[in-house]
Amino acid sequence: MRLVSPSSLLAAALLMQGGCTGSPEAEVKPPDGTAAAAPSARDTLVIAMPGDIDSLNPVVSSSASDSQVMGQIYSDLVQSDFDCSLKKLPGIATEWAWSEDGKTLSMTLDPNYTWYDGTKVTAEDIQFTFDLVADPAVATPRAEYAARLVEGARPKIIDPTHIEWQFTEAYDRDTQMSHVSFAIVPKHILKDADRATLKGNKFSKEPVGDGPFKIATYEPSQRLVLEPNEKFTGPEAMKPELGRVIFRIMPDYSTRLLEMQSGTVDMMENVFPPDADELVTKNPDVRIVKRGWRGMDYVAWNLSDPKFSDKRVRQALAMSVDVDGIIGKMLTLKSGEAVARPAIGTITPELCSAYNEDVKPFPFDPAKAKAMFADAGWTDSNGDGVLDRDGKKFSFTLMTNTENKRRGEAAVRMQASFKEVGVEMNIERVEFNAMTEHLRAREFEAVLGGWSAALFVDPSDVWRSDRPDHKSEFNYTGYSNPKADELIDLGLRTPETEKAAPTWRELQAVIYDDQPYMFLWWTNELVAIDKRFENVHINVLSNFHMLYDWSVPADKVKYPVK
């Protein structure tokens, strides 16, 4: 992610963006073709979005791009704030309480919410959503959520405004709440949908939500436009201050950066640290915000591949890469401040009590790595510079997504490091959604990808062994360790967060030693935003947290909307 080019290259780059002209004025022109509104009107936020949406159905979605949009068009049962752990705030559910044994969560619902089409949001919609989550035909990545709920009580409807969630066992209350409080879908629209092809249903791209924004326009691979939902019936304070939000889909990092520099977009996520200082110099109207430790990069090894089935090999691979050195060269500001830290697992450092500060990353030690490769049978028997075993070279392809410059540059650096220890690595760059499909299908040798970490602890989706009746969709590597399974079960059975913390810390140590991933770094993501926007809530919860609250003073409105 970076680059500075002359204006002629900027124009050429814009022409390649699926026909987008690059003109913000054209992008925000009122749909009826009339002249722009007076400066007292509400402003427009134009966002450079690296990837297209995949599915805006919260039951089956899995990408960060999806989550960003869904957070605006759906209302959560329970909203969140964060300070070392999740803090629960009223949403559709206005009140809640746990039973003494921690196995029943009762909720009172706000009866005023409606879907865009005017239909009331009901307890039946909540129950229907979890029927979909529990249905194996749907193949949702959230199946584990329903697995911990009692059939017939996920939830049990007491009356139109009261429901009960009955859990199979008591466990951490933040995790329990997170399992049941994500966005719901309308039963009256999806009740007859084919559950086996739910992701391909037109609802995925033309959703009917109940949130403060609605989708006004979606042009695949080009842009997605949100407008205030004039039929929003939630709290008055959640009615949007902005007149429009435009996600311009720009897979090429250099184009996103150039448009941010020129001011034709207002916001850009994942600014590459070497570019941050130059960006604010070229465009003084931009400020850089640090989001917090939410994103983590890793290399996933396909553990069914004989090259990666030996833990000694995976540990040797980890010792072959100078993670600290890459952070120093790639992920450090000119001031010397690093905006990344080595990762040792998938539990974010933001979860203060659960994160294991005592697990130390493997040192960068090429000599020891070579010895460990040899111990596992990999030596350079023919002197060609590449390790081999049983007549086969240690050669593999690392897949990563084209939209992420940080990962692209990191892949090149890792390729050079592996070459030094006799491992041949080829690089394949693909579009993000295609990479995700390869991960889900476990059709890869190695993938350089990343997680936006959960802010509650439930490692089961990623690290629990497959069961005969359930393949863990996010367990991309096929990882299986009975000790890890035992710790996951123990941690999830422990209702008190502080009492569960030692179990989660032990789990991180077990998984790090196994190295199903080469854990790289957590990033304190840099987000660029135009200074005219006020009440901006870019934080560890979301880059678009409380987007309804973002505003622009009347005298600074740039792209007015009636």
Radius of gyration: 24 Å
CATH superfamily of the largest domain: Dipeptide-binding Protein, Domain 3
Q: How does the overall form come out from the CA principal axes?
A: globular
Roughly what fraction of the amino acids lie in strands? 15-25%
CATH class call of the largest domain: Alpha Beta
Count of beta strands: 19
SSE inventory with pairings:
Elements: H1 7-15, H2 24-27, E1 44-49, H3 64-73, E2 78-82, E3 86-90, E4 93-98, E5 104-109, H4 123-134, H5 143-147, E6 156-159, E7 162-166, H6 173-180, H7 187-190, E8 213-219, E9 223-228, E10 244-249, H8 253-262, E11 267-268, H9 273-282, E12 286-301, H10 311-319, H11 323-330, E13 340-342, H12 366-375, E14 388-389, E15 392-393, E16 395-401, H13 405-420, E17 424-430, H14 432-441, E18 446-452, H15 460-463, H16 482-492, H17 497-514, E19 517-530
Parallel strand pairs: 1-10, 1-11, 16-17, 16-18
Antiparallel strand pairs: 2-3, 4-5, 5-7, 6-7, 8-9, 9-10, 11-19, 12-18, 12-19, 13-19, 14-15
